[in-house]
Structures are given as C-alpha cells and as structure tokens.
Amino acid sequence: MKTTLRALSVLISTFCIVSPAFGNQPLASGTVVLDKSLEAKAKGIRTLFLVIYNPESKMPMPYGAKKVALKSDAKGKFHNFQLDMGSISLMPAAKMGGKLQTMRIKARLDKDGSAGRDQPGDIYGEVSKVAVGAKNVTITLNKMK
C-alpha cells in the first residue's frame, strides 16, 4: 500500500508540472530591448527565444523556453513578453530541479532560428534573480556571440 501511495504521489507531482490547471501560473512579464549598437547586426533575425533557468538547480539545463516568431526586425523596445507555465515548453530540468522560486531569464535573437546553444551571430542578454511573478522585467540584448 505504501509503495502504491508513493508511486501515486510521484505521478501526481510529475503531472502537476505540466498540468493545464497550472497554465495560468505567472512566471514573469516585461519587455525585451535591443541595444542600439546592435540594431544593424539584428536585421533579418526574426526568431526570439526566452529561456528560463532555475538557479537553485544543480542541472545546467534550462527550466523552460518559449520561441517567438517576430514580424519585423528588432529595434529598441521590440517585444513585450508574458511567461507562464502554459506558454513555455518545459525541459527535463523542470521536473528534476525542484520548485522554481527565482529564475534567470535569457533572451536571444537567434540567427538560424534553431533551439540550442548560442551560435555565432546570435544576440542575447539576461537578467538574474527574477522572482516568480515579477512584472516589468527588462531584458536588454547587449551581447553578440
């Protein structure tokens, strides 16, 4: 009986991570800004990734990510974002990394449009120590791979 209850508990906790019932749980919202010095290099890049990391996790993998198709070139304040459990793709680290309390959010204009590590030509920036539920977060893209 104890084994069955433990297995059920694990199943429920695993299910809750991806459950649509938790889809509205706000993680963070704000704006992505492109540093003026990189505007020319960003021309034609139409894919933005917002990647969440759990600083408490021993796993170096992302907690989750969201891919955004941009309709025009990035310039100045170019994207308002809202991240919640229903809008991000959860990674295996989300299940193993414990409860998310603070996060690091990285935004990347991705030259080839493919998920994965930063590649030459990608433009990125990040913010750390973001509390779950934070509003008005500004991520400035000011680095180039």
Automatic annotation (TrEMBL):
Signal sequence, start to end: 1-23
Entry-linked Pfam families: Ig_CycH
Residue stretches making up the Cytochrome c-type biogenesis protein H Ig-like domain: 31-140
Keywords assigned: Signal
InterPro entries reported in the protein's UniProt record: Ig_CycH
Domain of life: Bacteria
Protein name (Swiss-Prot/TrEMBL): Cytochrome c-type biogenesis protein H Ig-like domain-containing protein
Species of origin: Pseudobacteriovorax antillogorgiicola
The organism's taxonomic lineage, starting at the top: Bacteria, Pseudomonadati, Bdellovibrionota, Oligoflexia, Oligoflexales
